[in-house]
Amino acid sequence: MTQDVWPLVHAERAALIEDLTRLDDEGWQEESLCAGWTVHDVAAHLVDTALTTRIGFLVGLARARFDFDRQNAEGVAHRRGDDPQETLRRLRRVARRRSTPPAPLDSRLVEEVVHGEDIRRPLGLTRRYPTEAVTRALLVQTRTSASFGGAKELVGRVRLTATDTDLELGTGPEATGPALSLLLAVSGRRVALDDLSGPGVETLATGL
């Protein structure tokens, strides 16, 4: 696997920017897979996370009274442009950044891939993600505790088996399917459960 995560992150940002460039105003207002967020909101969140630094994250978290959801909402409000094209310009400006919050660097792939699907799936858009990007995102997500948005505890109760790459994670009843759908499922996107099969799907569903 490539050691440097940033080329993969930058490639995902560039691909999403290309997709967003083709949206009309109605597309920008489409509800994303993130509850309560439109496509426009998710794009603003990606601007915010691209600008986040380790110190800035801690300061922002303290300002939000250590409430991650509030911190994210404040970030969206701050980075969202007056119109979609302004947000898109902001996203272009940060696309090559390498700053990060105090988290494993591969968590940047979780942000880009999962939020990329948060936008694409409701719009009927598809992307063939690099296997390495999806695999690394899935690995870091399943090693991260639920308190930090991960699925470490969940994969203690279910075995994830990818059908499109050589990857098995966790213990328990098996859930099989594409690695991207496994990533989305353990990231709380219930829509991805329809792509999976096996007795472990029920365990995943009850754990979300």
How would the blueprint of this fold be written?
Blueprint: H1 6-21, H2 25-28, H3 39-51, H4 54-63, H5 68-79, H6 84-94, H7 107-123, H8 131-141, E1 159-162, E2 168-169, E3 174-177, H9 179-186, H10 200-207
Parallel strand pairs: 1-3
Antiparallel strand pairs: 1-2
Helix pairs in contact: 1-6, 1-7, 3-5, 3-6, 3-7, 7-8, 8-9
Task: State mean pLDDT (0 to 100 scale).
Answer: 94
Given the C-alpha coordinates, what overall shape results?
A: globular
Task: Catalogue the unreliable spans.
Answer: none
Portion in beta strands = under 5%
Q: Describe the biggest sheet?
A: 3 strands, mixed
Instruction: Count all strands and give the number.
Output: 3
H-E order: HHHHHHHHEEEHH
Distance between the termini: 30 Å
Structural class computed from helices and strand pairing = mainly alpha
Q: Helical stretch count?
A: 10
Gyration radius, in Å: 17 Å
Fraction of residues in H or I helices: 40-55%
Strand order of the largest sheet: 2-1-3
